[in-house]
Structures are given as structure tokens and as C-alpha cells.
Amino acid sequence: MDNGIFLCSISNVSSGNCSEDCGYCAQSSHYHTGIEKYKFKDMQAVLNEARTLKQYGALGFCLVTAGRGLDDKKCEYIAKTAKMIKDDGLDLHIIACCGRADTDSLKYLKQNGVDSYNHNLETAKDFFPKICTTHPWKERFETCENALSAGLGLCSGGIFGLGESWGDRIELLKSLQILSPHSVPVNFFIKNPALPIVQNTLEPEEALECVVLAREFLPKARLMIAGGREVVFGREQKALFECGINAVVLGDYLTTKGDAPQRDVDMIRSYGLEIATSCH
User: Fold this and answer.
1) What is the pLDDT of residues 35-78, one digit of tens each?
2) CB atoms near residue 254 (< 10 Å)
């Protein structure tokens, strides 16, 4: 694996109106978060996003749809969009993130240029019913297994700071060990008055302990710092990389703004770190 910091970007290609009640998610129709809602983003606009982020050094590009699962319309849209990006010659590692999915649909995505599937376990099996009641944790685990069965790379991680115990965190990481994803997104919950979870944002020290624990359980994974890093750590993020982070979500998140891509690239280089130039 390239020893540099792997950069991955997200495109929220279908936003809001999700029927699930995940208490951490601004895209749920159960909560009035005021986010922008749309069915499918124009494919040319998505391609332009991919071109722009590639210029900053992004190697991964993730196509994310809201909703519980990958239905036929979403599957066809993601397949066409992935193929368009591949045909443009950008040499990006394309990830799809579309919720629950069966093996046949995932094989179809792979045939059309998708390289990996992202489906986060989010938290421990026993804690999950406290943050979501509209689908079971088991469904998430099975979708991850389906992605592997379809021959796709697996990207799966979770959110820390939902009110879970340290025991819950260890159970999440044990479940991820079983799946052995090549990439593990680490998110920190950010308090939102429109959401039912009322936990305060983790302090930097506790957040770093979560990263250290994740690296201990998943020594070979690409450990990717994702949502919440700017709020928890501000502009001083060197400790994250010292604790085992070797991948970063570059640019905006699903419903919140990230830092300017060039600013993040400059920050990483200021720590004496290189930007990865290869997915391998």
C-alpha cells in the first residue's frame, strides 16, 4: 500500500427524504434538519466534481444516495455515473454507498466501474437499537458480506460519540475485524439540535483514544478520518496521523461543509506527510 495519506471525496448524489430513523443522520425524514433535498444529481455535475477533486490529489470518489437500500433506479443511476467517470480517464477508485444491497446488484455495479462498496456498521450490534429502530444491525453486516461476495472492496466503519460505552466500541471493532474491510471510516458525532441524540461532541483526548483503539484492532486497514474531525480538532490535526490515521475525506461531507481541499492538502504536508499517489 502507498505510504502516503490517501485522499477520498464524497458526492451526495441523492439527498434527504430517507424513511429510516437513524438518530445521528440529518437526511432522515423523521427530523427537520433543513438540509437540501433532491432525487438524483445531474451526472455531468458529478463528473465535474470528480475532475475537480482529482486535481487536489483525491484517489477515491464515493457516490452516496440517501435511503435504506439500493433499488433498481439507484442501481442504474450509480452504474451509469460510475461508467461515465471511468470513461473520462480520471483513474479514480469509485465507491458506491447506497444502503442495503443484494449480491446481484453489487455485481452489476462492479461490472460498470464501481470498485468498492461503503456500508458502515455505525456502532455495536447491541447498541444499535438505541439509535435506529427502522432496520436491524444484522442487515448492515449482511450487506457488507454481500459486497465481499460480489468481489467489491469493502469500506465500513462507524461513528463514535453516540452515547455508546467503551465496551460497545470494542464490539464494533471486533465486528469490523471479522469483515476485514480495506478502508474504515472513523466519524465523530456532532451534536445537532434537530436530532434526537443529545450527546455532547467528544473531547479531542477521547476521540484520539478511539482512533488508537481502531488502529489496534485493524492494523492493516486504511483508517480514514471522516465526519467531525474539524469540529473536534479544529485546525490542529497532527495527532490524528500520529495515532494511525492514513486516509482523509477531502472536501465536503454529505450535508455539511468540509474545509477547502487545498487547505487540507497544505495541512497534511505541513506535518511532513506525503499525499498518496496510488490506491495500492
Assistant:
1) 556 578 889 999 999 999 999 999 999 999 877 788 899 899 99
2) 19
- State the angle between helix axes of 103-111 and 72-87 in degrees (0 to 180), rounded to the nearest 10: 20
The cell for 243 is: 495515532
Residue 119 placed within a domain: yes
Q: How confident is the model at residue 271 (pLDDT cuts 50, 70, 90)?
A: very high
The answer to whether residue 185 sits within a structural domain is: yes
Rounded distance, CA 150 to CA 106, Å? 6
What is the pTM (predicted TM-score) of this model?
0.91
**Distance between CA 108 and CA 154 in Å, rounded?**
16
Helix axes 137-149, 166-179, angle to 10 degrees: 20
- Residues 36-53 as b or e (16 or more Cβ within 10 Å = b): eeeeebebeebbebbeeb
| C-alpha grid cell, residue 59 | 484517489
Residue 244 lies in a domain: yes
